[in-house]
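Session log. Operator J.P. requested a structure for one protein chain; no other inputs attached. Running the standard single-chain path with token output.
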Amino acid sequence: MSEKLNSEPIDKKVAQAMVDAYAVEARKFPQSFTKAVWFPAEQIMEIAKLMEEGKYDGLRLYFAQYTDVLPKDVKSEYVGKNTLLLVPTTACESNDDEHQDNLDDIGNRGQGCPESCDGTQL
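Structure written below.
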């Protein structure tokens, strides 16, 4: 991780404890439990390219749940499951510490686990 951003990687044991703590609470609602969401590199790189070009200044992740009104190409089995929405942001003109959501380019299309769990290690 970057020292410039004042962030450090999380130790694997700490990360595992965090995932386990989430699972204890989330499993109280088994119909919506989602352990992880995987996004393809192509999707992430596309967003990163737009950031590099200056269109966006960051990315906000929203915790969400599929409803009966599903995005195109999402299977009906996902109704009630948790997911993540990727929302690019732009800097607010009046305050550099504020970031405005760009609601015209909301991303989803991640693969949820428990359906697609191959490779998960936490």
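Operator note: The two ends are 19 Å apart (CA to CA).
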